[in-house]
Amino acid sequence: MKVKLNSMIQSIGMTKRQLRSMLIDEGLYYAGSTLLESYVMGALAHPHMDGRKHW
Fold this sequence. Notes:
Layout: H1 2-11, H2 16-45
């Protein structure tokens, strides 16, 4: 499915360089949002994970 979409996008004028840049940006977006979501869920699941010592 993704290959078909990429081929279609190239056929209407997107260069290989633009497509590569788009895919890198998409990957970074997904990686960043996953990292942020993991941190938030972890902090909610275990309140002492914020790095501070609670004596």
